[in-house]
Amino acid sequence: MKMTTIRRGNLPTIRPSIRLDTDELCHLEIPATYHKVNTRSTSLVPGRFVATSKKLRFLSVSGGTEIGWNSVMRVQLQSGGIYLELSRKTGNGFCSVPDPLLVEATLDTLTRMAKRQLVGLNADATSRHIPQDVRNAAWQCDQEGVSNVVSVALGPTWSSITSFLTVRVAQVPSVMCTFCAETAI
């Protein structure tokens, strides 16, 4: 699969060699060697990465670790492998893998998706992008029971988000919308 396709969020789904939760999808299983840095030396821990929609697992005969995507701060491509920077102490470091570019693209995309950050968009999708603050405001309107959102001056993005902001919920006679500062009728 092309790296561009993966970076756009279209990840391959594979059948893993381990049992997963029913709502968990496996996107990558590949041999990996963790370079564990000790006080005086570096030991190599052979194993494999299993990257799923929920977490990254490093499995080896000497034990393994599970890393939630929100713990991943950075995935950096390096010669012969990747460097994982985590928000916790264990699991940080260099891992050699047979296809570093594929592993870096997959892990970085899964991290971005889990953190609800944008993944690479094509030119057509960029023009139809709905900013996160607008999404949050529409969700807030929905939670407050607003039955209709009036037009507000949002500049050039208004035409692309009109249908997104139209909220259809149970009719509430008069509720103030915190986003548009108008009373819905």
Structure description:
The protein has 185 residues and is an alpha+beta fold. It folds into two domains: 3-114, Pleckstrin-homology domain (PH domain)/Phosphotyrosine-binding domain (PTB) (PH-domain like, Roll); 127-184, no CATH class. Helices cover 25% and strands 30% of the residues. It has helices spanning 3-7, 100-114, 123-127, 132-144, 158-165; strands at residues 26-37, 42-52, 55-60, 63-68, 72-78, 81-86, 93-96, 175-176, 183-184. The longest helix is centred in the middle third of the chain and has 15 residues, at 100-114.
Number of helices: 5
**Overall CATH architecture of the largest domain:** Roll
Low-confidence parts lasting 5 or more residues at pLDDT below 50? 147-175
Q: Write the CATH fold name of the largest domain.
A: PH-domain like
CATH class of the largest domain: Mainly Beta
Structural class by helix and strand composition: alpha+beta
| Shape designation | elongated
Oligomeric state of the chains? single chain
- Looking at this structure, what is the CATH superfamily of the largest domain? Pleckstrin-homology domain (PH domain)/Phosphotyrosine-binding domain (PTB)
The count of DSSP E runs of length 2 or more, i.e. the number of strands, is: 9
